[in-house]
Amino acid sequence: MRVLVVEDEQLLADAVATGLRREAMAVDVVYDGAAALERVGVNDYDVVVLDRDLPLVHGDDVCRRIVELGMPTRVLMLTASGDVSDRVEGLELGADDYLPKPFAFTELTARVRALGRRTTVPLPPVLERAGIKLDPNRREVFRDGREVQLAPKEFAVLEVLMRSEGAVVSAEQLLEKAWDENTDPFTNVVRVTVMTLRRKLGEPPVIVTVPGSGYRI
């Protein structure tokens, strides 16, 4: 899942981004509304965590722009105000969810994951394919009943492949969904991660390389 965090309180923004990355999400961070509009115009995000009171371009205008563009991106709006009227106003702008500050990080994560599920074809909460069982919420993976310990990026790659339901996923798509914009697109990080993931999942191999196209399970 790829997430954009838009928050002008830099310490909070960076803390949220770090926490979401530990949950195997690819996260970009910006600190004002103008930068947010630039990012959503270039990258495809599953979820935007959007502070309402932003400098340069207000969060309301960022939300309106996302809606106007017809993007499948879901918006989780944050605000320091917990008034019901503010929550209603934010939702009427087109936000998909609303979370007042201060918030518990576990709740933020749960809401981001729930919104991320809405951007794709509905799938069961626990993904199963080729003897692999992946639970995104618990961040657990089992192969034929054996638990497999994965690093965050390995988990993210496996989740993207599982969600594709047998379709081929290119290296570029994996890079877009599992890494943030600071990753060099010319590195071999995808190939190395897939190799490590294959080894951890064990025999027989379940990740198939499709020459010139990508990978599938």
TrEMBL record:
Highest taxon of the source? Bacteria
Cite the Pfam families for this sequence: Response_reg, Trans_reg_C
Response regulatory domain: residues covered? 2-116
Task: List residues of the OmpR/PhoB-type domain.
Answer: 124-217
Query: Which residue ranges carry the DNA-binding annotation?
Result: 124-217
- Which PANTHER family does this entry report, sorted A to Z? REGULATOR OF RPOS, TRANSCRIPTIONAL REGULATORY PROTEIN CUTR
> What is the protein named?
Response regulator transcription factor
Species name: Streptomyces bikiniensis
